[in-house]
Every structure is written in C-alpha cells, then in structure tokens.
Amino acid sequence: MSKALALVVVLFFVAFCGECYGELRVGFYKGKCGITDVEVVVRDVVRIWHFTKREKDIAAALLRMQFHDCFVNGCDASILLDGNNSEKKALPNSSVRGYALIDAIKEALEARCKGLVSCADIISMATRDAVVLSGGKWYNVETGRKDGKVSLASNVNLPSPSISVSDSIKVFGNKSLSPTDMVYLLGGHSVGNTHCSLIQDRIYNFNNTGVHDPTMSQWLFSELMKKCPRVPSNNVDNTIPLDMKSPSLVDNSFFQEIQKGNGVLRIDQQLALDGLTKKIVGDIIKDPNFFTKFGEAMVKLGRVEVLTDGQGEVRTSCRVVNKKSFFFGLFN
C-alpha cells in the first residue's frame, strides 16, 4: 500500500469514527434503524416518565443504576438481569430503582429495530436524558456497548458511604478514573436520598464517641436529628436528601454545601476536607463549566470495562440473557 493510499485510509477512518473510544463512539446507531433516531426514542420515553412522575427522581435513580452497574462487571447492564443470585439481590443494590423505565425504553426500541440497541447503551443514554431534565447540561453519550451474560450478587463489592477519600481514590483509580473524575461523579449526590440507618453513627455515635461527627455543621446536625431520631418509630428507616438545599437539581450546590459542613454522607463531607480532594472541590465551586465537566466524567464512567463487538450480546429483554446464551441457566 502506498503512503498516499494509507493516508487516505487513515483519514477515512478518522472521519467515519468521529468521537470514539475503542469501539465506542458518538452516534453508533445513526442510520441503523431506518428513519428512526434511537436517541430520540430513548429521550421521549424518559421525558414521558419524568413529566408523569411514573418514576420518582429519575435522575437520581439512573445515576445510581449506571454507577452500580459499571463498578461491578463494567458497563454491561448486568445489574438489570433477574435471578435469585443476580446483582439485583445484593444488599448494596437494594436501593437501585428505574428498572421499569429501562424496560419501557427497551420495548419501544425493540418495536422499531429488533435486536439493535443494547441495554447497556440504554442505561447510559437514559441517564444523560434524566440529568438534562433535572437541570443538568446535555453531553454526548458514546454508544456501541454489548450486554453481559453473567450477573452474580457475589461480584458486587461497591464502596461504602463511609469509605475514606484515599481508599475511594484507589477504587476509582482501578476503573481508570482520576481523583477529579471521582469528585465530579460523587457530585451526582446532588440528587437522590440516603437512609437514616447509613448515617446513624454520624449523628449519634461517631467512631464510638457517643457524640455526632464534629465535621458536620450545627445546622445539618439539627436537621438530621429531626429526620433521623435515635430510636426510629415503628422501625421505619426514613430517607433524607443528599443535598438538603436543592435535592432535585443536578448542579454544583452539592459542593457548596459540603464546603459548609453540610455533607450528609461521610465520604461526601470528607471530599471538602481531605487534602487529596479539597482543592478540587474549591475549583469546582468556582468553575463556570461544571456541567460540561460533569458530563465528561459521566462519559469516562461509561467507558469502564465495556463489552463491544465480539463480546457480550444485545439482549432482546434487559431482564434475561438471550436463550442461545451459554450462561442462560445461571439466571433461572
């Protein structure tokens, strides 16, 4: 092959690929479903569910789903698989929601282009659309993932809310995510809730001292005591927003609040105090490009250990592997 021809081939590949990472790329489905724009179908279903309140706090639900999926076997939609011992059954995933919404999106896509769009890609696209509907900014999602065939509760080992900053950096680093990526992604806690049981020790017996965590503000301490009594009535485990000031918006107020000592989870509060991340938090608060950089971090999360051509499959139902799969028996 001549140098000139080789150059033409390279330039053609670059032009064809556009924005891509490995076999992932923006616009992977463009032109593959006739006149149907796959991303518009996803967006329309998410919008319907958002405005009709068919799923509470869609952005919080899908942000958690994507994180919990990607941090186990990679972004392969293994969290969606049903089964007695699947990832869904693991204790850390008991709070994950949004499965019915993903089913609705999958059904709409299968009706138009059967067997084309993976469940893993649906999670990424739907999460982006939900973020936008909750005050965030649009970001391009790379697509082209395949779905995994294995889902085991025993594989679920997610970082706890009380993990140290240094250990959290290691966990994220193992997924090729930088400390800055980590801080932005934890900024997803600007929406969503946690249970009182997960922060009871911070309120009443921090490190077995018999008192509250001294890093929380007096205002937060007072609010948490109201919402999370020392002895819950009727054994009810109340929920509280992770961002007490703007709990339904994806914005940078979360970082402003943790800087004031209003971080509900210990790891969130420590981001603003630990020398490894304190400057990152301060920079985010002052950065007018927060939404763009949050989107960039979400794109990097979506690249974690993905399956592409030659790996995995495109499930026809997000809840079960295709019947031809060797691993089908694992989920019955």
Automatic annotation (TrEMBL):
Catalysed conversion reaction: 2 a phenolic donor + H2O2 = 2 a phenolic radical donor + 2 H2O
Pfam families in UniProt: peroxidase
UniProt family annotation: Belongs to the peroxidase family. Classical plant (class III) peroxidase subfamily.
Cell compartments where the protein resides: Secreted
GO biological process: hydrogen peroxide catabolic process; response to oxidative stress
Organism whose genome encodes this protein: Solanum pinnatisectum
Catalytic residues (positions): H68 (proton acceptor)
Signal peptide: 1-22
Record protein name field: Peroxidase
Site (Transition state stabilizer) location in chain: R64
